[in-house]
Structures are given as C-alpha cells and as structure tokens.
Design brief:
With 79 residues, the chain is mainly α. It has one domain (18-79). The chain has helices at 3-12, 19-35, 40-53, 60-70.
Length: 79
C-alpha cells in the first residue's frame, strides 16, 4: 500500500487499508464517477466507510455492488 496512506491511517488512528479493500474502493470511485456526477465519487467512498464504521456490515466490495445496482445502464467493469 502507499506509504502516505499508511501514515494517514495511523494519524487518524484507523486500520490501514488492505490491498483488496483499496482496490474495491478505487473501483467504487471509478464506477460512481463514470455513472453519475464525478464529484459523487469521493463522497460515495466516504459513505461506504461510514457504513462500515457504523457496523452496517457493508465492506467496500458490498458498497461497490450496491452502487452498481443503483446506476442506470451498463457501468464500467460490470460483467
């Protein structure tokens, strides 16, 4: 993982991102940016984090699946 992100996580006193989690969050941001207004991408990833922190049982992969299901038409990376 990126050293800056690791240091940022440490400074915030939150767990560092696992590689699979980071990839799912980047996919989430990409899908949302291409399927809605681009500015929704960082906000969607924040909401995914809030859901995970709130014990909603929603990880990055689940948030990605939810976002894909909410977007009209085909989305990037959707099989």
């Amino acid at each position: 993982m990126d050293d800056w992100l690791d240091r940022f996580a440490d400074a915030l006193a939150v767990p560092r991102l696992e590689p699979a989690e980071a990839e799912a969050l980047l996919d989430l941001a990409r899908v949302v940016a291409h399927g809605t207004e681009r500015r929704n991408a960082p906000l969607a990833t924040f909401l995914a984090g809030r859901a995970a922190a709130g014990g909603a049982g929603t990880g990055a992969s689940s948030a990605l699946a939810t976002a894909r299901g909410m977007l009209p038409g085909p989305t990037p990376g959707r099989s």
